[in-house]
Write a structure and sequence with these properties.
Elements (H helix, E strand, L loop, with lengths): L3 E3 L3 H12 L4 E3 L6 E5 L3 H11 L8 E3 L3 H6 L8 H10 L4 E6 L6 H4 L4 E5 L4 H10 L3 E2 L14 H8 L5 E3 L11 E4 L6 E4 L5 H8 L3 E2 L1 H4 L23 E6 L2 H14 L3 E5 L11 E3 L6 H15 L7 E5 L7 H11 L4 E3 L4 E7 L5 H10 L4 E3 H8 L3 H11 L11 H8 L3 H25 L4 E5 L14 E6 L2 H12 L3 H9 L4 H7 L2 E4 L4 H17 L5
Parallel strand pairs: 1-8, 2-8, 4-6, 5-9, 10-11, 12-15, 12-16, 13-14, 13-15, 17-19, 17-20, 18-19, 20-21
Antiparallel strand pairs: 2-3, 3-7, 4-7, 5-6, 9-10
Helix pairs in contact: 1-6, 11-12, 13-21, 14-17, 15-17, 18-19
The protein binds threonylcarbamoyladenylate and magnesium ion.
Length: 542
């Protein structure tokens, strides 16, 4: 099929109307996103919408009309609840969809067999013109391939739908950029099923208290039923992995720049203000405080993600889920398949270094002097008593439990350190849990500043949460002697252990500060104390 590219002039709108009256499909601009329209009362035409989009048949469509009188005239609903009238006066025409008891004329394809129907009066002049010219009620979901970000330009529609629909009307970029707020009046109190530009607060000012459906901000459990079928499907997802980072601007910037220093295949989806501070490629979605601009830019940004070269993951700066931010959050968290990383607000100081350099002595001194120290070794001990971790270790290394169900740590160490692959497997299983425990302890700490004592700070990606990282280094000959003495190793064993670690160069490149421990123990510990006082004792914001 050849898809006609139409303008929004009257002769072209006339062509589009004729196509719709003939049972064809036309993509039309609305103020929110482009919709894929068909005659809502023609079940054959509606069925073709599902085919063109690859949309599951159990996901109902929104019926669009030109004005309020059409709802009764066309008998689209069996009853107009009083609250619908109030909402209509306040917000129609505009980006609000109201779910009401359906009229008999609504085909099952539109309502997906539900007893309700979703109605919206769009404000976009081209949508209005098409509705009026055709005289039809138009069923129209967003005009994207099911699962992809909704289209906010005619080009987005063409990218997804060329050759599958009769026509697309180019009405420029959509001004709102995210789909309408969907509210159901079938429950009491009424409930938001999908957030949009019209916020919960604005609606409550008109009809009183409403609820926000659990699935708006959370992932549905396997056995949970969706109030709005659309919410159970994967949505808005680029092919590239998207992860949300939830935290302040400063923590976001730190996390991103530290990660990029080690992995050049990441990118940022961020606010305008973040960009100058970030080292990696960025897609911006507008000013930090301009949620409307962010909403307008969001879907175009999500589509642009897949155009980035050599990028495997995009980390998005997570918006606050209030006001219009709720709509942004709702779309982004689905684009991220609910993968969210929380960045603690605490100032975390990373203390790391090469084996035998003196990190443990430094940590011991700091802990004894009353600084809050979170130990990775201690977190590791807790991690391996976690039942999930134990199960994963058994799956990887065979039965490594003692008769009392605890981990046979000697056996695990023996297997894990026998080959580099096994070591990696062990780390892959334990590091996330260790990191989680350390971050939890940091969050629960009463101090503003916390020290992470971790020899594998970088390997376990704990460094990404650190505002400041100090590396303890020492001359290799000194280190070798120290570990031979301390752990009773021969020269060869000591050398093997040293060479298994990150290089001195790595520490110099990735730490913010380096302390050398090549002289007297007293002088070194004095340096450590001064360092900690400098970053922990004052209220300096880092
Ligand atoms: O802004 C918009 O609403 C755009 C433009 C084109 O108007 N349309 C749109 O449609 O986003 P669609 O189909 O992509 O999303 C409609 C949402 C889906 O999540 C669907 O499950 C829900 O509304 N929905 C429709 N009828 C429903 C009903 N009777 N009960 C519960 N949810 C319903
Ligand atoms: Mg959609």
């Amino acid at each position: 099929m050849k898809t006609l590219h139409l303008t929004n002039t009257q002769p072209d709108i006339d062509i589009a109307s004729a196509i719709l009256r003939d049972g064809g499909l036309v993509a039309m601009p609305t103020e929110t996103v482009y919709g894929l329209a068909a005659n809502a009362l023609d079940s054959e035409a509606v069925r073709r919408i599902f085919e063109a989009k690859g949309r599951p048949m159990d996901n109902p469509l929104i019926v669009h009309v030109a004005d309020y009188a059409d709802i009764e005239r066309l008998r689209l609903v069996s009853e107009i609840p009083e609250k619908a009238t109030l909402l209509a006066q306040a917000f129609w025409p505009g980006p609000l969809t109201i779910i009401m008891p359906k009229g008999d004329v609504i085909p099952d394809e539109v309502s997906a067999g539900l007893s309700t129907v979703a109605i919206r009066i769009p404000s976009h002049p081209d949508a209005q013109n098409l509705l009026k010219t055709s005289g039809l009620a138009l069923a129209a979901p967003s005009a994207n391939t099911s699962g992809k970000p909704s289209p906010t330009t005619a080009q987005h529609v063409i990218d997804d739908m060329e050759g599958r629909i009769e026509a697309v009307i180019d009405g420029g970029s959509c001004s709102v950029g995210v789909e309408s707020t969907v509210i159901t009046l079938a429950t009491e109190p009424p409930r938001i099923l999908r957030p949009g530009l019209i916020t919960r607060e604005e609606i409550e000012a008109v009809i009183g208290a409403i609820e926000v459906d659990h699935a708006v901000l959370h992932q549905l459990e396997n056995n949970e039923k969706a109030s709005s079928p659309g919410m159970k499907y994967k949505h808005y997802a680029p092919r590239t992995r998207v992860v949300l980072l939830r935290g302040s601007d400063a923590r976001y910037i730190t996390y991103m720049n530290r990660l990029y220093a080690r992995d050049p295949h990441i990118a940022a989806l961020c606010y305008d203000e973040d960009k100058p501070q970030l080292d990696m490629p960025c897609i911006t979605i507008g000013g930090m405080d301009d949620e409307k601009a962010q909403a307008q830019a969001l879907f175009d940004a999500l589509r642009a993600v897949d155009d980035m070269k050599d990028v495997h993951t995009v980390y998005a700066h997570c918006p606050e889920a209030t006001g219009v931010g709720m709509a942004l959050y709702n779309r982004l968290i689905r684009a991220a398949a609910f993968e969210v990383i929380d960045l603690p607000e605490k100032r975390i100081i990373g203390l790391t270094g090469q084996t035998g350099a003196g990190k443990s002595e430094a940590a011991k001194l700091l802990s004894e002097s009353g600084f809050p120290v979170v130990s990775a070794d201690e977190a590791a001990r807790l991690a391996v008593s976690d039942s999930e971790v134990k199960a994963m270790l058994c799956a990887a290394f065979g039965d490594v439990l003692l008769p009392d169900g605890s981990l046979n740590r000697q056996l695990v160490a023996k297997i894990a350190f026998s080959t580099p692959e096994n070591t990696e497997t062990l780390n892959h299983i334990t590091h996330p849990k260790i990191r989680e425990i350390m971050l939890k302890q940091a969050r629960e700490c009463e101090h503003d500043t916390v020290i992470f004592d971790a020899s594998q700070l970088f390997e376990a990606y704990e460094d990404l949460f650190c505002c400041r990282i100090v590396g303890i280094l020492a001359d290799p000959t000194l280190r070798k002697e120290r570990i031979m003495r301390r752990d009773g190793l021969n020269r060869e064993e000591a050398e093997r252990r040293m060479s298994a670690q990150l290089s001195e160069r790595f520490f110099i490149d990735h730490c913010d500060d380096i302390l050398y421990n090549n002289g007297s123990a007293d002088a070194f510990l004095n340096d450590v104390r001064q360092y900690a006082e400098r970053w922990c004792a004052d209220e300096r914001k880092i």
